[in-house]
Design a protein that fits this description.
mainly alpha, Growth Hormone, Chain: A, 22 helices, about 80% helix
Length: about 425
């Protein structure tokens, strides 16, 4: 039984590392409009932005492969070993982006190098989340897993907030010209120090009790990939987790945070500093609700909260984005108070689906294949279905000339998840997860 003090040490070290990995992953997206001018040919701003968003999306597409690679390591060698390696890969690739030459300096080699490093980022993040969520859950007591794992769930949003905060600090400390020329590199280079700090924190952690007990009993899987995806019963659970939970959760997350940011910047043409400030304030206001809904899921269940969040998103995005348009184009300039409220409302839906989902996924699979089995549907749902939201949304607006065309894709996906999850998901919050 893990003591309360040791449990908070586990949560602190795990969350710090995951926060830094999300920060590394999202500074790229937060700086997409700036990066597009540095790494792609000038002449067509929309094409350059779409190229940058496509590069951004590759990091999401490769995340399932990271889930397979590091999920296997986590189930065979140990959770701690896997997420130490992912942290170092993420730190290296993020720092290297800050050192890359521009398109003007080396031509087409610049976007190629950027793509390779973005793929490494995605590979690392694909192994990170499942390890951190599994590690914390396997230390948490039964009946409180939703609450304790919700601290891991805050890290994705806090990583985005941290990226926006560092970017705002750099931007306000430099002239616009200097920030565009070299200042955008500072947030990437800062990653080196953050990763070193987190690495030394994580090195001091022990392996999870559930994993140690499983190894001692001889029940560990030697073939977690086969056992996860070939065994019919577990394969069914993986597919159900994807289509009945993480697919919808992914689009709710990226619509409510990243697409809101891109919509303000690229469709409504709100100033870069203003949009980042609006989203950052909304993130601060919304983040505590990850804990609220994680704890509430221990009492009423994971399923009802996740399904309600998907339904509310699918039904509310169109009126919310119409209201954002009105507020952004008001005669006296953008109505920042209203825009903060509207982004916060979307984030509230995010917390409903994302706060409980780590506990839900951990409870769905046995210890011997938990890391591998939960990581793949999570990263397909988030990395592919969710991660493509900014690219598809930006493309749809440009292609159809309708400012709301980018919302139809996440509305359909969230609606499908609500239907599938409502019909087929089973509540498992009372499950004891130790072997």
């Amino acid at each position: 039984m893990t003591s309360r003090r040791d449990l908070w040490k586990v949560i602190g070290a795990s969350s710090a590392g995951t926060l830094i990995e999300w920060y590394d992953f999202y500074i790229f997206g937060s700086l997409a409009t700036i990066i597009s001018a540095s790494f792609f040919p000038k002449g067509n701003d929309t094409v350059a932005l779409l190229s940058t968003l496509a590069t951004f999306a590759t990091g999401f597409v490769v995340r399932p492969f990271g889930a397979l690679v590091f999920g296997r390591i986590g189930d065979v060698v140990g959770r701690k070993h896997a997420f130490l390696v992912t942290l170092l890969i993420m730190g290296f690739s993020t720092t290297a982006i800050g050192l890359l030459p521009t398109y003007e300096q080396v031509g087409v080699l610049a976007p190629i190098l950027l793509l390779i490093l973005r793929l490494l980022q995605g590979l690392a993040l694909g192994g990170e989340y499942g390890g951190a969520a599994t590690y914390v859950a396997e230390h948490a007591p039964d009946g409180r897993r939703g609450f304790y794992t919700s601290f891991i769930q805050t890290t994705a949003t806090l990583g985005l907030f941290m990226s926006l905060g560092v970017i705002l600090l750099c931007r306000t400390s430099l002239s616009e010209t200097d920030f565009t020329r070299f200042g955008w590199r500072i947030p990437f280079l800062l990653s080196f120090a953050l990763v070193l700090l987190s690495y030394f924190l994580r090195r001091r952690l022990d392996e999870s009790p559930a994993f140690r007990a499983m190894k001692a009993s001889g029940k560990a899987s030697s073939r977690p990939l086969r056992d996860s995806f070939v065994e019919p019963e577990n394969r069914r659970l993986v597919l159900l987790a994807l289509f009945g939970a993480t697919m919808g959760q992914g689009v709710v997350w990226y619509t409510g945070q990243f697409y809101a940011l891109y919509y303000l910047q690229t469709v409504l043409k709100v100033d870069f500093l203003v949009t980042n400030r609006i989203v950052a304030i909304a993130l601060v206001l919304g983040t505590p609700f990850f804990i609220v809904f994680g704890a509430l899921s221990d009492r009423i269940g994971r399923k009802p909260l996740m399904m309600l969040g998907c339904l509310l998103g699918a039904c509310s995005w169109l009126p919310i984005y119409r209201a954002m348009t009105t507020a952004a184009l008001s005669p006296g300039g953008p109505d920042q108070g209203t825009l903060i409220w509207l982004v916060f409302l979307q984030l509230f839906f995010v917390t409903m689906v994302y706060g409980p989902i780590a506990a839900f996924l951990v409870e769905l699979f046995p210890t011997r294949i938990r890391y591998t089995s939960m990581s793949l549907p999570y990263h397909i749902g988030n990395g592919i279905f969710g991660g493509l939201v900014p690219f598809i949304g930006t493309w749809a607006v440009a292609h159809f000339g309708d400012p709301y065309a980018g919302l139809y894709y996440p509305m359909i996906i969230a609606g499908l998840t609500f239907l599938i999850g409502t019909l087929f998901l089973r509540e498992r919050r009372q499950v004891a997860i130790a072997e």
